[in-house]
Amino acid sequence: MADLAVSLLSADFSCLEKQLQELKEADVKWLHIDVMDGNFVPSISFGFPIVKTLRKAFLGVFAVHLMIQDPIRYIKEFAESGSDMITIHLEACEDVEATLRWIRECGCKAGLAVNPHTPIEEVYPYLHLTDMVLAMTVQPGFGGQKYIHSVTKKVETLHKYLNENGFDSVLIEVDGGICLETALEAADAGSDILVSGSSVFKGNIGQNVHDLLEAMNHSE
Ligand code: DX5
Ligand code: ZN
Known about the structure:
globular, alpha/beta, 20% strand, 8 strands, binds zinc ion
């Protein structure tokens, strides 16, 4: 069964406490925090002081998605700010292996993300150091974009590879453009966690969470 991670990028920060409460009431377990540096991606979002503050208001899994160049420089701060899982981009690291090892040494689960056009096979050498692979289904940098359907095939390939090579415990996450129309396609390909931002915060949060969970698990 696939689960939902909610990206805070599309939240209304002027009433964040209320929105976090609605996520809790909807039984959301994963919070996805998009950190952007204006370098690896064009936008700037928020950094570890925000993660630290949010930690007090939400008890679920804190998954930080670092869209920053050379993320190894900031792993310790994000770990100390209360992250449970830290996901870095393969394309942004000088030394992917050292970065993943450092995340685990800092006490967090390690996620490895790839952009839509990066071949999924590039993550294979790092799977023994990885708790979750994140396949981006949009170009990283902005919420509210359209799901890139060609990534579904990559997820299927990865899912098969993980099962056939003893990596069954490695989770697959997809991120970007997840809505009622795309959730089932991503889940059926083998995704364990689907990240959604704009589709959660547009309108009634509780209803949206319910509908997205229903859509992604429809065939079961
Ligand atoms: C994109 C971010 C995503 C994004 C998802 O760079 O990594 O997490 O906020 O937002 P939606 O669901 O609106 O595509
Ligand atoms: Zn993200």
